[in-house]
Amino acid sequence: MNPHIPLLLAPAGSPDALKAACAAGADAVYLGGRQFGARQFAANFSDDELEDAIRYAHLRGIQVFVTVNTLITESEIPHVLKYLVFLYRIGVDAVLVQDIGLLSLAHRLIPGLHLHASTQMGVHNVPGALFAAKNGCKRIVLARELSGEEIKTISDACSGRDVDLEIFAHGALCYGYSGRCLFSSLLGGRSGNRGMCAQPCRKQYQFLIGKPDKWGRIDEADPFQNSRYLLSTKDLALYPVLDNIVNLPVAALKIEGRMRSPEYVGIVTSTYRKALDAIQNGTFVPQPEDFADLSIAFSRGFTSGYVSGSTCSEVMGRDYPGNRGYFIGTVLSYWKGKVQVHLNSEIIPRTGDGLVIRDREREEGLVLRENPDINGTVVELPSPFKAYKGAQVFITNRKELEKRIVNLLSHPDEQFSGSYPISCSIVFSPEGQIFGTGEVRDHASHTHQFTFTSAEQVEAAKTRSLTQDQVREQLNKTGGTLFSFRGISISGEEGWFAPVRVLNALRREILNAAQEAILQSLIPHPDTISLVQKSIQDYLGTIRTNFPKQVTDSWLIVIVSSKSEAVAALQAGADQVYLLWNPLLENIDGLSEKSDRWGIMVPGVIRQNELEAFVHFITNNQYSITHRFLVDSVGMGEYLSEKFPGSLISSYYGLPIANSAARYLCKEFEFCTLSPELSEQEIRDVLAQQNQSSPDVAICCQGLIEAIVSEDHLCACTTVNKDRSLVIRDEKKYTFPVICEHSGRTHIMNSSEHSLIDEVTTLQNLGIRRYILDARNRGEHYAENMTRLWKKVLQSNLHDKEKAQIREQIVRMSYGGITRSGYRRGLSGMKTNNG
């Protein structure tokens, strides 16, 4: 017996999917409304549908979590707070959030609302988890890239705090760390941080290898391999190792799939429910039939993921990005419309099953009209084309599974029927009224009192009077409802007559009263809602538009990845330089004399063992290096402030600032960096709400924006010499530089260089003082020359001709031309009037 069984959390992208999840045995469901959710292309729920969904789930003992897990712009703050109050009022069990500004506001203004840190928040180490817990999160959905040992370490660090952990158990995997991916936003303006990801990682790409020029660009790149789905992952399936997974300190296991059908939700949820129940009973053995069901529901090929120790090569599915079905064998030969297939599976295709035969040139499907002939491990199947030897055969639909799921979806309340026991006392008054009191016990064994009064009345009997047995017999006809009577006490006047409709109306009245007693116990009191609304109104009333003054002194901050780049930037006049730390960082003693002008940048993804190495590095060199740090993920600033008191902390765009509340949360920082997805107007809105406690604001003015950071070892797929560099090229011939850390972790940069050279005057007029040049991995020539150019731009009153000349030089040095990234579109994805 295993007493610790995590909650099973199922996706619901539509009302039908919600019913499927409940029927299939989910303990909780997560879903999104029509706004602020990270799956904008799911059907999602209107406000009325949300209220109905919560009532439906709660009456079946199932929790409902609503996603508000996108970045929130300044203008949206009043609307999203109103939305959160609505969710709180209708009894949502928790809200998932990504935006740290919204997190802080919700925690402060709606203290009774349970908050969960979405995986979009990017929590992947102890500092991130402690940040989420400190700011009010009751649960943290951890990054999918973590190992079991890392999860245990985070759990130990959170011990004694009112927070628990959640991990993904099944479904699609993102190529990059969630919440840090800008790939879709940069390529087509569909931001993953706004729930609009276009999944460019499922497209084909080709490796190119070339020699970097003096500006760090790839010169004369040559194809290395044919195009493949280089960034496409397999799907996660922890089913085969579930008995080990439940021993991890996690409170919930999450199934991905709000874009999936009700059938998918029903199949996957029921399979995991059955497995978890078997683990609870000590009888779990992974079944081929169950694994086949999961594969047929949807599968790009399965991996047990990083959490169970899989390597990146086992996580990736670079050969095909679509649904594969369940693999059963390979073709041995073809003859006259039939193929001989060697079976690799215990699952045998049967009449009515759908199959796909896929070889190197084509794939086609068929439906079996009869049971096939089987001889040992060889089965003969019809083939719609001449398949080559070695072609793969998959089952994509099973007739038996289809029948099973249709039955589940057509009888969603079968397991819940009569699950609420009611005891009641009924009184027949002298005036013929019927009223009484009752008690109902819910699925958590809590009892709820209620009263009822029937709208119908009984009449004086003219012949035979109504007996108590007749009343009980009619009331007990609760079939098809969630309730059943365990005790009915009847008192009062006798000698009454009541037609059947009167007793049926009484039964409905009692059941409705019991239902409302359960539901009302799960929502806040109206007085609490009024206090929350007043608190929010008071907060919004304190907001004053306070446009900053035009700056006359601009600072240029340069980020570099080597000591030589740092020295070059400092000599060229950079006001500050941040050197990206890595475990193999070269000797930096020569920089100590410039300690007031340089600092260390902490990588945006820094796993727990890497963090320990970083702290060791700083501790051992604390007298010879800087006291400035640039952080790039949640929680790291607070962690370093505690570890190294007196340090000056700032943040880069990996800790995205999209609103003034997020900015204010960084009030102890020297500066924070605005998200590169913000438009000019969205930047104006953030800056207009500053107060004396707000930190200074920086903006990335030049450099390659990081599109993806992934645990995949993409460079291991090639043989790149030390003096050569790697890019990937998409189907439109755009090339994306690839940077691999010593650990193998992959960074993919945008195909065009971000530059706000045409917006400098506007940004200075807005009051932005700090400008960041991201020169990482571009070499000392780029760091020096680009620094000199931007110093001229920021500190000189240039004539139009001079500015045009500098712009031309910047474009000439840039990778793939220049782009303003999100400056035109903004987080909403809509182009503004800036051109």
Report the biggest beta sheet as strand number plus sense, adding barrel if it closes.
10 strands, mixed
- Radius of gyration, in angstroms, nearest whole number: 31 Å
Q: What's the helix count?
A: 23
Unreliable spans are 830-835
Helical content (DSSP H or I, runs of 4+)? 25-40%
Which fold does the CATH topology of the largest domain refer to? TIM Barrel
Question: How many domain units?
Answer: 4
Q: What is the mean pLDDT?
A: 92
Task: Tell how many strands the DSSP assignment holds.
Answer: 39
Terminal Cα separation, in Å?
A: 65 Å
Pfam families: DUF3656 (PF12392), Peptidase_U32 (PF01136)
Protein name: DUF3656 domain-containing protein
InterPro entries: Pept_U32_collagenase (IPR020988), Peptidase_U32 (IPR001539), RNA/ubiquinone_mod_enzymes (IPR051454)
Domain Peptidase U32 collagenase: 393-518
